[in-house]
Write a structure and sequence with these properties.
The chain is about 40% helix and about 20% strand. The chain has helices at about 10-20, 40-50, 70, 85-95, 120-130, 145-160, 180-195, 225, 230-235, 250-255, and strands at about 1-5, 30, 55-60, 80-85, 100-105, 110, 140-145, 200-205, 215-220, 240-245. Strand 6 (about 110), helix 5 (about 120-130) and strand 7 form a beta-alpha-beta unit. The relative contact order is 0.11.
């Protein structure tokens, strides 16, 4: 089994893939994320000290862009992948005949109905936008609010976002840290500009604060037809960005 691990949960995903692979009697290879391989290497040290058969476990510290030969190797029977949709599609296209366990992309909507607790909803939504700086496949990227409570919810989300303190996440008072690398901020800035060109209005945040720091950003979309064209809607932007719009009936929100 080849485990391909993402940067946002490097230890958790490695341990998870390792356990369910070896319990079934498989040898296990892991390709750690290039951005933060150290947790995986430290885990490998524990595996070795525990006496696990050395020939049945390997850590392969190679960049993703050089992994084609590894992924397509016929000695690998299973690929367990967690990462972006684009990378996952590439893995599937070059790997050949294998079994696949694929967790690709995400980005969840929050649907808020008239009878919701607005204060609680706003608090939970902001946590969903800013936790891990939005670098989670279950981060909230779209907020759909029933018309009757839309303005109240929107204003409370803005108020909650204003309380989010950015900085070094090692400090107790900090709520949100940096993104993993400058290119991630670049991608978020591009998504913001794309939304603005399509009629979206930045109602909170949007400002880059350094090479890897950016404010959490909320973009209001009035024209729902344009919503479907926006990069921030169509793609998973792995960053603290969310779109917000309203709906009249439940069926409209689901659609």
């Amino acid at each position: 089994v080849l485990g391909i691990v993402p940067f946002n949960y490097p230890l958790f995903d490695t341990v998870n893939k390792f356990v369910y692979s070896i319990i079934a009697g498989n040898a296990f290879l892991v390709k750690p994320p290039s951005a933060d391989p150290l947790p995986v290497l430290l885990f490998a040290k524990l595996v070795q000290e525990a006496g696990f058969p050395e020939k049945a476990f390997s850590v392969l510290t190679i960049p993703g862009k050089e992994s084609d030969k590894l992924v397509s190797d016929r000695r690998i029977n299973v690929i367990s992948f967690t990462g972006s949709t684009n990378t996952g599609i590439k893995v599937l296209s070059i790997a050949g005949v294998k079994q696949f366990i694929m967790e690709m992309g995400g980005g969840n909507p929050a649907i808020v109905l008239n009878d919701a607790d607005i204060d609680l909803s706003a608090s939970k939504i902001v946590f969903g936008i800013t936790s891990y700086s939005g670098q989670r496949c279950d981060a909230i990227k779209l907020i759909l609010a029933e018309k009757a409570i839309y303005e109240e919810l929107k204003n409370k989300i803005i108020n909650e976002l204003s309380k989010v303190k950015l900085g070094n996440p090692w400090e107790d008072a900090i709520d949100m840290g940096p993104l993993i690398e400058p290119s991630s901020v670049d991608e978020m800035v591009e998504a913001i500009e794309d939304s603005k060109k399509l009629g979206g209005k930045v109602i909170y945040g949007g400002n880059r604060l350094g090479s890897t720091y950016i404010e959490p950003t909320l973009i209001e979309v009035e024209n729902k037809e344009k919503l479907f064209e926006m990069k921030a809607y169509k793609e998973e932007i792995f960053a603290p960005i969310a779109l917000i719009t309203n709906f009249e009936k439940d069926d409209e929100a689901i659609e």
